[in-house]
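Lab notebook, bench 4. Still working through the backlog of constructs that have no structural model yet. Next entry is a single chain of 179 residues. Request: give me the structure tokens for it.
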Amino acid sequence: MTREQFFDWAEAQNERYEFDGFEPVLMTGGKLGHNLVLLNVQFALRTRLTGKGCQPLGPDSGVATIGDTVRYPDGVVTCSPIDPDSRLVPNPVVVFEVISPTSGRIDRIVKVREYAAVPSIRRYVIVESSTIGLTVMEREAAGAHWTLSTLIAEDVLRMPEIGVEIPVAALYEGLDFPV
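Model written out:
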């Protein structure tokens, strides 16, 4: 199946799918905590990017990675003009994946390699959904190796490539995790 065949096929489905470059992969529904974190990411990006020339997009926005692969991250930021009829985000700069225990392997291993292959992506943020914590991969330029850092509730996620800073705790607003 090609990317275009996948898009045509996916539009006729009731469920959501990603495309691993060979076949569709069903995206299952998440828990309420996952959804709340996703909404907090979207809100934090939208409120901080207003007037900055970059656009936050959400979980129905495709990112082309390796070969014909198409991923639908929980959050993605582009600073390029958007074609409303396009199926793919142009020049994604920052990508967010909110992970659960079942999606961790794909997000921490497979997608790290895939997002690294996209020259425009400068930062990949893995957001935990069952505890407060971020794994942040960043790079200065296309082709450079990722630099990894971890952030906890007291930290601030700094994204100079889009001119935004978000307190980590803001991404978990409305959730109480055991200490």
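Notes after review: Helices lie at 3-11, 32-49, 104-116. The CA atoms of residues 137 and 163 lie 17 Å apart. Flag for follow-up if needed.
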